[in-house]
Amino acid sequence: TDAISKEVSSVVNNATKIASAVVDNVTKTVSSVVSNVTETVSEQISNVTSSLTSTAANTVASALNATILVLGSEADELYDVCESIRDSVLIKMNSTKADAYARLDVLEGQVSSAVGKFVPLWDNISAAVVTTSGV
Question: What are phi and psi of 96, to 5 degrees?
Answer without folding.
Answer: -90, 110
